[in-house]
Amino acid sequence: MKFLEPSGFIWLWTVPALVLLYFMKLRRKEVKVSASFLWEAAARQARVDSFFQRLRVNLLLLLQILALLALIMALSRPYREVTGRAAASSIIAFDLSASMAAEGRFEKARREALRLVDRAPKGAEFMLVGAEKKPRVLVPFTRDRSEVRRHIEKLQPKAVEGDPEALRALAMALLNNHPQSRFFLLGDQLPPLPLPENFIFVNLGEKQENAAISAFSVETQEDKLVAFATITNHSEQVVEREVVLRRGLQTIHTERLLIPGGDHRSLLLHLNEARPGDFQLRIKPADALTLDDQAFFVVEPPSELRVRVHGDNRFLERALVALPEARVFRAGSPGEFQLEAYAKPPEGLPETSAVMLGVPPDWLHGAPAEENFARLAASGHPLVDGIPLTDIACMIPPEIKLPQEAEVLATVSGRPAIILLSGKRGFSLLFNFELYRSQLPLTPAFPILLRRFVDEKVRPTGFRFPANVETGRALELKLDGPLEVRGPEGRRQRFEGGAQRFVAPFPRPGVYHLHHGTEQRQVAANFFSNTESDLTPSADHDTSQEPQAAVKQRSVKEYAFELALFCWFLLLAEWLLYHRRGGS
Amino acid sequence: MSTLLEPAFLKRLEKLQLISRRLQISRAAPGERKSQSRGRSVEFAEHREYFPGDDIRHIDWNAFARTDQLFMKLFTEEREMTLTLLIDVSTSMADKSLFARQLAAALGYVALAGYDRVAVGYLSDRLLDYRAPMRGKGRIFQLLKFLEEAPQDGLTNLDQALKNFAIRYPKPGLVTVVSDFFQPGAGLEGIKYLRYRKNQVQLIQVCTPEEENPELRGDLKLVDVETEWSKEVTLTPTVLAAYRKAFADHQQLLRDWCLRNDCGFLYSNLAVGVEDLVLSILRKSGYLR
Questions:
Q1: Which residue, B39, B61, B57, B59, is CA-closest to B48?
Q2: Are the CB atoms for A455 and A461 separated by under 8 Å?
Q3: Of A53, A389, B9, B204, which one has the greatest count of Cβ atoms within 10 A?
Q4: Is the pTM value of this prediction over 0.80?
Q5: Share of chain B above pLDDT 70, in %
Q6: A30 and B211: CB-CB below 8 Å?
């Protein structure tokens, strides 16, 4: 027997102390009696069996010493190592990656999991892990089998690529924390070796024929649309597939392909038009995994930012032209432009959004601009947050008196240098110094600042994101109103607006319609993964351990509780013998 | 009326009467008690042969007519009886004093109401005090006053106290001793003196429930209330059982002696009230009727 807290034996000094106390004279309570001669006679008679009296007294001492020793032992936490049948706590990990959507695989995994739960010994604990893009614990350890069954029944594979390395890391972490548990992976892909001792791979993969669209895109080339697609045959045999390309509901191209085993074929289709729209590519007939037999692409209408430039400033123009959506004009009527750019401040403040080099003359107040140079200092305004403005030298600007609606974005020598002004119909970005006498246009900070100004203030919408994404991707948006997402199967999902971020998941391949206020966008979600589309079974692994079998495990058995209980019984016995039944 | 007797209890006592065996009370005044003396009364006792000189008024002429022999009719002479109540007032009786005096008051009243004479004496290690016999119900107040002023002192020495009494008051009567008899020998030597003086003796042992069945526990120092004798004991069930046995043996000693020597013995626990003792237990035991 070993002890977890050997320091508990320090209390052994209390044993001789108890004996010492025991032999010290007791302070007796005085009781007046009338018939002393009777008591004397009784005491005389009692002395006849004094041996038994002494025995009783000694028994009391013995009981108390035993109780004390038991208590000290309990404090020292004795234990011994035992080997026995464990109550089998099991971690059941479901491979939820796309390949598990292959015909029959996931149902087989579900049956196997339910069998594991049903055949586990009484008192067994279960944890459910979902191994999708990133593995996560779906149900923490519980003895509630009905809850585990309910979760297993609800599980479905997802159109994502699994991460075997992350799964292995999770398994190792869990088994490290719960060394008596066993980790069952119900899947078709063995994580990379080495695996922990209690890791049991239940291989559900089997040889199945599958051809997949492994790439699809539609791009504008010289005002015409060009579609590109790759179809991969993951089988060993040659397969023949019919490829169908549709725009919306209209079939615009059909082609038959013969693809050798383990090979792929690509298509390049020049479409004699440039109209935007949603495109769908399908291969027929359907095979074991239908998830990768279709692909989608959304071609969006071009978006532009119309900018009118007033005056000449090469730095400003170059920066504006660098904006991809910007179309720069020098003439036009005011209502046609979303942004006005002034090389010199106009006489009156513009009603639309504007970028101005210099400030209105009536703002000037106090000291004029100095020829000396000093470094920019960002004010901490959200618009310049993260933009590397510091250490950029520029001429010390003149002192100005700012109107109430103006906010300082950066200063030079304490004087406002970059100013944001909110107007009735838009915002203006003012530079209170000459760009030619500053390092700013020569640094990345300038185009970044313009980019952010345009994004945040000129076209203040967070409703911008790629039109073509991969399935399972979470879309993070900043919207000021609710977002409604209609999936490819017509299912609608609503995300409330506000300052928080929206997460619009795209669980399955298809075209999603997103509505935000009056704006509407289409997003095509695709799943291209050669790993998941390849249904070839994973290498065999040692699955000799029957999942439902109990395991022999080494564990530590502590006896502190039993000793404490024993101590309690001794004290109870002492109370019964010497107090409740007449005292000694 | 008194702290010793309630009026309602007194009323019930008036219906009771002391029962005494025939007493050798020839020197007593005529009363309501039958004596061993033959004399004048209405109650026929026996016949005897006529001897010359006998009072011819008591010749049974009917018997003569039947037998042609002269027989004298003898009648039981009724004499008054003296009930002497001897109460133990030693320190050991402190807890039982009120009970003893209430009992004595009740018995005294029964005797006074029955035209008997009542005397009271207090015992400790000697005869402490004695109230000469009183007669008539009217003396009940004197009796109660004397009982209320009872002393409470001294060691128990019934042998000496009863011997004192027997020597100083040799006239026989019904002597009732109320005590706990807690002394080695139970005071039997003194009781023998009473019997020697031809007293009809009734012993009433009075104890508290705690004395009969102590509920003491653990390590104690027992101190005698009278002698300051002390003993440190650890009271185990064995010791307690030994005490109970000693108590029972002591009582049995008294009981057996009384049986052999034609004395009455009655044991009463304080848990039994005085009323129950007098109205029920003493009647059943033949002390009262």
A1: B59
A2: no
A3: B204
A4: no
A5: 88
A6: no
